[in-house]
């Protein structure tokens, strides 16, 4: 099976389609989405209770492996991450942190990173000062953080009997505890859906 998702030209076409000034294309290229699948994360799961955007107490019980497997579902997850990035910060790779303490192109909090298993960039240690910040501002490590977080909180947020990209987007925005709250009116969700629909048309996923 080929690991290629799309060519560089395909990414450029996507950026034009979304009118994003190539933000998503740049992110996809930087993180490897337009060239190869990222490997499955292998970080240790941290069983902690945290608050993200919304307070709650729900934990996921569905096995991670049922969704993250080779084939279309895994491929869609990679594209899903690109659209979440697009909806979150317009895939701004130099955004740093905002005044709420959320950092990087995915606006990841330190609590989110901890619950994702404290992934780090190559050669770093989660125990060194600044490891969280160095990870979440780096596209590859930030994407790994999101994937790991979904391992912990995988659930059917929209009650359609599936766990898919829509649920991933909701969990990322609302946190893993009350992802059933309606976000259809949010700008984040509208941009996410537009991005996902456009990228599916281009990649036929």
From TrEMBL:
Superkingdom, natural source: Eukaryota
The entry's keywords: Antimicrobial, Bacteriolytic enzyme, Disulfide bond, Glycosidase, Hydrolase
EC top class named in words: hydrolase
Disulfide bridge positions per record: 80-165, 85-91, 97-103, 135-141
One record GO biological process: killing of cells of another organism
InterPro entries (alphabetical): Invert_lysozyme (IPR008597)
GO molecular function: lysozyme activity
EC number in record: 3.2.1.17
Catalytic activity: Hydrolysis of (1->4)-beta-linkages between N-acetylmuramic acid and N-acetyl-D-glucosamine residues in a peptidoglycan and between N-acetyl-D-glucosamine residues in chitodextrins
Record's protein name: lysozyme
Natural source organism: Timema shepardi
Lineage: Eukaryota, Metazoa, Ecdysozoa, Arthropoda, Hexapoda
